[in-house]
Write a structure and sequence with these properties.
- This protein is of the alpha/beta class.
- It has helices at about 20-30, 40-50, 55-65, 65-70, 85-95, 130-135, 165-170, 205-210, 215-225, 235-255, 280-314; strands spanning about 5-10, 35-40, 80-85, 110-115, 120-125, 140-145, 145-150, 150-155, 170-180, 260-265.
- The longest helix is centred in the last third of the chain and has 35 residues, at about 280-314.
- It is globular.
- The two termini are about 15 Å apart.
């Protein structure tokens, strides 16, 4: 039965991806331990930390985040190819994963990225784990792309948002996929527009925090992330929402052609681009999503492994 490998495909989803931590916790509690892990964007971060034995540290980091700390990681870059330089996040990753090579991990792991220019889907299955993570989550226009072996790479969600195909290619016979964007509401047809109430302004505590960072920073953050004075969306919001819509359509197409054996769909509340401080909620939603499916998953794995043994010995 040793050749019947279980694959886990962790999808993209920005702050919603903290739900992957809960998924991994619940799977482990049920005695389900994937042999192959593939991740895209935040899925690559959580999956890579899991395979490297650093999931506890990542969960502690995520649960400790506050809105203030999240803003503290936004080291803005006005001259490069991304709005955020990403050096502060890189330092956090390097502190735990310095010197860790993907090929030395106990389990197979792949981070999916996209090559700039060619659009090639790039599977990062060797080399520095931290670099692979950063390349996989480098959201175009927000984070700087990452140069790996002469190739400039950014977010893998542009080509393979939920990397089921990677797990299959690496030999997984049973693939569990996690889609943290399934309830985001993309793709609905609206035949007639109805007026909606204007969105609420940022909470007072956020306005105070921004004010203390200086008038210029306040104006820039409000414009880019919280929207201009007319309550319209900021540039980053427009970019990310457009990206999410494209990602959702790509995911549907890829999954239709190569569906997983089971799909885990966390039921998440509305989550903003930089709501990484809401890890507690996301993790609990991930746990609950697995608990809804775990009996079915365990039965299928046992049944298919038994069938596999019979086929080999028959």
């Amino acid at each position: 039965m040793g050749d019947y490998k279980i694959g886990l495909a962790l999808g993209a989803g920005s702050a919603r991806g903290w739900a992957h931590i809960g998924v991994l916790r619940a799977l482990a509690a049920a005695g389900i331990h994937p042999d192959i892990v593939a991740g895209t964007s935040i899925g690559a971060v959580v999956g890579g930390c899991h395979v490297a034995g650093e999931l506890d540290a990542l969960e502690e980091f995520a649960r400790d985040l506050t809105r203030r700390k999240v803003l503290g990681f936004l080291d803005f870059n006005f001259t490069g190819s991304g709005l955020i330089h990403g050096q502060r996040l890189r330092e956090v990753i390097e502190a735990r994963l310095k010197g860790v090579a993907i090929e030395t991990l106990a389990k197979r792991f792949v981070a999916v990225a996209t090559e700039i220019g060619t659009g090639h889907e790039t599977w990062l299955a060797r080399g520095h784990l931290g670099d692979a993570m950063r390349a996989s989550y480098a959201l175009p226009g927000i984070f700087k792309p990452v140069n790996i072996e002469g190739r400039w790479l950014f977010d893998g969600a542009l080509v393979n948002p939920i990397p089921v195909s990677v797990c299959r290619a690496l030999g997984a016979r049973y693939v569990i996929a996690v889609n943290v964007n399934s309830d985001a509401g993309h793709g609905t047809v609206v035949p007639d527009l109805e007026a909606l109430p204007p969105p609420a302004p940022p909470p007072p505590e956020d306005q105070g925090l921004l004010a203390r960072n200086g008038r210029a920073m306040k104006k820039m953050l409000q414009r880019q992330f919280f929207g201009p004075a007319d309550n319209g969306p900021g540039i980053s919001t427009v970019m990310v929402q457009a990206f999410n819509i494209v990602q959702d359509r790509i995911a549907r197409s890829r999954l239709a052609g190569d569906p997983p054996d089971v799909m885990i769909l966390p039921r998440l509340p509305p989550v903003g681009l930089f709501d990484f401080h809401r890890a507690d909620e996301m993790i609990e939603c991930g746990v609950a999503a697995v608990q809804r499916e775990v009996d079915h998953i365990k039965q299928e794995i046992v049944s298919r492994r038994f069938t596999n043994v019979l086929a080999r010995t028959g």
